[in-house]
Amino acid sequence: MTWQPEIDELHRREELARKMGGEESVARHRSQGKLTVRERIEQLLDAGSFHETGALAGKATYQEGKLTDFVPANFVCGTGKIHGRKVVVGGDDFTVRGGAADGAIKGKQIYAERMAHDLQIPIVRLVDGTGGGGSVKFLERMGHTYVPLNPAWDLVVANMGRVPVVAACLGSVAGLGAARVAASHFSVMVEGTSQLFAAGPQVVKFGMGQDLTKEELGGVQVHRTSGIIDNIVQSEEEAFEHIRTFLSYLPSSIWKIPPAIQSNDPSERRDERLISAIPRNRRSPYKIRDILPMIFDEGSLFEMGRLFGGGIVTLFARLAGFPVGVIAPDPYILGGGLTVESSEKLERFVDLCQTFHLPIVNLVDQPGAVIGLDAEKKGTIRKAVRAVSAVYQATVPMIEIILRRVFGVGGAGMSNGHGLNLRYAWPSGDWGSLPVEGGVQVAYRREIERSEDPKALLAELLEQMESVRSPFRTAEAFGIEEIIDPRDTRPLLCDWVADAYERLPQLLGPSMHGMRP
User: Fold this and answer.
1) What is the pTM assigned to this prediction?
2) β-pairing, 186-190 with 165-169?
3) pLDDT tens track for 460-500
4) If both were cysteines, with which of 91, 103, 127, 267 could 494 make a disulfide (CB 3.0 to 4.6 Å apart)?
């Protein structure tokens, strides 16, 4: 006597689970241009690597002890591999009750977070659910209401400080689903088929009197600049590529070193264009994204959050095959100054690099916190101070390349000047407590006002200050450690990054403060 009947029953139930919400529901889902949860997992992971957990969980109906119907739980989870490294993946099945909680077996979601936590491997959330509570009709069946509890939130918070957490918004996501997207190190959203909001249009209309469509309330036109979503993509396939790329720069956990790869880009490469990359006219901006490929490994740039806090550019890159975090300015957006948004972006990115031991290259052209009435009303200086504090709290290796301006608290806070200040300046460097142009008008205000020709006197004073502001004068006083030929930037950084990775084993483990969403 064998257990073959039970094995046959196992396979039958697994087959029922793979049918998800049934043919009609699956067809309706696909008609919206969306992949099913199982198709998503298959496309995300290395071929044939998915090992499912809890496939038999669901709502079963029996007659006379025999199974007559089975609706699988609307959350599919397990482990698989991305670029050969194991990850946890969990995805909502919208074909079963729209991904809502009343179609779920919540223990599966908790188990997925627990796997990532205890196995110390990344977790990828494929979120396509209508919220945490499900339909109010569910309360009628329960016979009572309940004080809400965010499932597995202790693990969600803990995982932010232990393993890479990635979330994809792949449909209309509200409530707890939106929170699961936000509670990540990297999030991505598909244009046209995805929306994200704390509460959906009907709830908003009832509570706030605002009559909005899903797209108007939480589509990409909202979240391009909200800071909730890092990257916007055109298809689910592109979303999966962004997820794979993001994870390729990070270790599987805080107890490992970021993975280096073989680079075919010579470390000694000196790009001749760098010598003219910064305009001699200090008021002329430049395109930082044209400069970055001249310095970092070919094809290695991966930018995040481009349209939020756009004056600061944050990205991953490689130097001689070693992953690094990169902070850079975009002078075209408020001169690259620190706004509320760009300060928040900078703080979050530094914390991300600190959590996963990613050395930081800071390309600095920082005029300081933005000024004016609107900036004061927003409390910009507090946000700028938080960003500067993140830099000072970071213990991960960091190097500063001064491209042009370093002014004020914001400029001074781009590196910890009280430690071993590894910084190098290009000849275009220009620095001080405030720009000379404004400083002269403040310092010599009375003389200028009393002058018969204020404009001529101002021009004369500025000309006198021009030689004083030369970076070479600062170097004479050892106020800047080195001024370098811009073409030497890549060779210098490739030498530095090798030393930085020698130090990393000393830093493994939890950061001094946990990573928050």
Assistant:
1) 0.92
2) parallel
3) 777 777 777 888 999 999 989 999 999 999 999 999 999 99
4) 267
